[in-house]
Description:
Mean pLDDT: 91
Helix content: 25-40%
Low-confidence stretches: 1-19
Radius of gyration: 22 Å
CATH topology of the largest domain: Glutaredoxin
CATH architecture of the largest domain: 3-Layer(aba) Sandwich
Strand order of the largest sheet: 13-12-11-14-15
Number of strands: 15
Shape: globular
Strand content: 15-25%
Number of domains: 3
Amino acid sequence: MKRILILAAITLPFASMAQKQGAFTIEGHIGKLNSPAMAYIDYMSNGVGKEDSAAVINGKFTFNGTSSGYSYARMALSHDGSGKQKAVYTGDVIYFYFGKEKIKITSADSLANATFSGSKVYDEFIAYNKTIGGTIMDLNKWANAQVQAATPEQQKDTAFFAPINIEYHRRMKARANAQIEYAKTHPQSYFGMVALSEGTGTPVDVKKIEPIYNAMSESLRNSDPGKELQQRIYAAKTIHIGAPAPRFTQMDVNDKPLKLDDVKSKYLLVEFWASWCGPCRAENPNLTKQYAKYKNQGFEVVAISLDDHKDKWVEAIAKDQLPWLHTSDLKGWNNEVGRKYGIRAVPANFLLDENKNIIAINLRGEELNKKLTELFGN
């Protein structure tokens, strides 16, 4: 039976508490797996992304590193040694928080069924999720279970999926509302800030969110997720049609600084994307046609990638044959320009006039084509 995944329409950037680093150890014991099985971990510590891999021998693997106290991790297990990408996107993968602790992860068969011990941060994370109605992955599993339980005839009927989608989005909304309430009642809790950040969504309702944010403890507001949310609130208040675009300087693919004010054009599209973003890549052929049509009339594009691996970024530029300007600091969701613009999902873009003032936001496909035709008159 074909597995259909209903994805949440929000993003979950890794975040970590801005405080002193400390050592952690994660010991895994998953059944009797052996070579060529591999375990992979990606996590954030003080806003810096880190990754590691470990061979699985007699079911055991170990990761050592430093944590700032609250680090968010993605761990994937490749049972057959087919590699990280397959394990992350179609395999055995879990998401969790951990701290400066010695943690044990144990299961007879998979990470998905593993139990954790030795982590107070993980226990706090689980308690938080019970309060708000589960993780996004839990909601996705529920939706997938509904689809998998359907008959072959039902799976061919598009009308069958409508009530599942309606219920899925109802649960997502209820979860976001529960997160906001959790933030209100837990102003001293790290997961109170996590709840507020996730529950805020896009666009930011400043009148609703800012008072809750201001009531959080100073240490949380000064944490990396606190600063990130503060930037999103500021962006929501200052970035709008008619406002000047936030200025920035970031390195291009040749490690040379590209300054927004140095880009001369009649109209400029600031495009946020990533090599791993399917909808971004799907829009590239259309944007390429528009760029070729209007480049000589004063149209320019500055693409800011939320990649964290230069080889993937450069490979995507070459494969999609993208001739415009490209920048990235390779910090993923913590890209400094992305945070300045309040970016929480890609693709996203801002169309600027020759004075670098915003004249349109998030135009794609025919909407972008129509706007460019209007501006250039052909």
